[in-house]
Amino acid sequence: MTNEVTRESKRRWDLFAEDYAKRTSKFGDLHKEVLLTPTILSLLEGVEGQKILDAGCGEGYFSRLLAEKGAYVTAVDFSARMLDIARERTSNDAAIDYRQADLEDLNELESSLFDQVMSNMAIQDVVHLDAVLGEVHRVLKPGGTFIFSILHPCFVTPESGWHRDEQGNGLHWKTDHYFEEGQFEQRFGTKEKVFGFHRTLTTYINALFSTGFTLETLIEPAPSEENLEKYPDFKEDLRAPDFMILKVRKAY
What we know:
Elements: H1 2-22, H2 30-43, E1 51-55, H3 61-68, E2 72-77, H4 80-88, E3 96-100, E4 114-120, H5 129-139, E5 140-151, E6 161-164, E7 170-174, E8 182-189, E9 193-198, H6 201-211, E10 213-219, H7 225-230, E11 243-250
Parallel strand pairs: 1-2, 1-4, 2-3, 4-5
Antiparallel strand pairs: 5-11, 6-7, 8-9, 10-11
Helix pairs in contact: 1-4, 5-6
């Protein structure tokens, strides 16, 4: 069953890859540009000369940012089409090694290889969280950090969404079925919605601890006043957070 789900998830991401890539600028799609990219960059412990794994790289925008800042980047994704687009968008002299692999099985990568691992909006797309965390822990050097963003599990649930009035104004944000963990269809895709896997906050935190990580930082990114002046629609993000970013460390 797991292999079937993974294969179907890859198929849907391959179908969605080109449409998704059209939304992506140098700093990602709009939510990534405003909320996620700057926060993750601020949490990285230096970039120049660092060996960094971009786990679930998509079309590669974050890998390119890291390479521009002097990192040696390995970028992994399970979607062949996403990687095709990433390579098309990357100059030949960029220090990026793109590889197709499932995050649950990074057997081609050596243990204790990376100074840091980052993952931007990919961990909620994996079938087996424990397997992914185990592989990230394995490929990190002792003392290395793992920084990742996900949909906020307390607010973005399979049945969450805005209740709006006739004019489209948000009345309130509804969450439901929080404790019903498992596969669901996210809100975007080309013809078929891509899969996500809802987990409670307890599941995420306990999985990190049991893998051997220590939690250092948890951020629920919110738009700044400057962001709101440029993108007024982001005022809704001050009412309920869409995302959560965690920084954890592999013990020595």
